[in-house]
Amino acid sequence: MIALLAHAAPAAKAAAPVGQHAATSPGLFGAFFTLLLVLGLIIGLGWLLKRMPGGAFRPAEGLKIVASLNIGAKERVVVVDVNGQQLLLGVTAGGISNLHQLPEPLPQTPPAALPHLKQLPNFAQLLQQKLRKDA
Predict the structure, then answer these.
(1) Are 69 and 77 in contact (CB under 8 A)?
(2) Other Cβ atoms closer than 10 A to 79
(3) DSSP three-state, residue 52
(4) CA neighbor of 91 nearest in space, from 106, 66, 73
(5) CA 14, CA 24: separation in Å to the nearest integer?
(6) In the structure, what pLDDT confidence band is assigned to residue 36 with cuts at 50, 70 and 90?
(7) Contact 64/80 with Cβ under 8 angstroms?
(8) pLDDT mean over 80-99
(9) What pLDDT is stored for residue 75 in this prediction?
(10) 119 in helix, strand or coil?
(11) By CB distance 3.0 to 4.6 Å, which of 36, 64, 102, 123 could disulfide with 81?
């Protein structure tokens, strides 16, 4: 066993220092170039996805959901506008059925607007009122 240790000692001295064969860091230029390459790849794939037929996130031409109402966990009633004609559809987990064809379009609802911050009630007063009612 001693002979084995004596033979291993000179070999350990001749071995390379730790970390001599490790790769160096890419540096700031390499990291910046890699970042630009990844961003270019993302933008290029997005452009390609838009150009492919059926691969875009565009809504269908002439087809629009006007209104929707949940009836149950997986059931809905939907009003769909198809080239100016509105249909009332029942949507379930099992399929879609035409319930009615509307003779005239539904009135357009105004888009939801954010409330004016100056018209909001004071939170401290609302909290005090709620605490007084519960007590």
Answers:
(1) yes
(2) 19
(3) coil
(4) 73
(5) 23
(6) very high
(7) yes
(8) 91
(9) 93
(10) helix
(11) 64
**Per-residue model confidence (pLDDT) at position 107:** 81
Q: Which amino acid type is present at position 87? A: L
Task: Name the percent of the chain in helix, strand, coil, to the closest 5.
Answer: 40, 20, 40
- Tell me the percentage of the chain whose pLDDT exceeds 70: 78
Residue 130 is encoded by which pair of tokens?
A: 């709620």
d(CA 130, CA 135): 9
Token digits of residue 18: 């730790």
Poorest-pLDDT segment among 6-15, 44-53, 67-76: 6-15
DSSP string of 56-115, one letter each residue: S-PPPTTEEEEEEEE-SSS-EEEEEEETTEEEEEEE-SS-EEEEEE-SSPPPPPPPP-PP
Distance between CA atoms of 67 and 107, rounded to whole angstroms? Answer: 11
Structure token digits, residue 126: 């609302």
Site of tokens 């198809």: 82
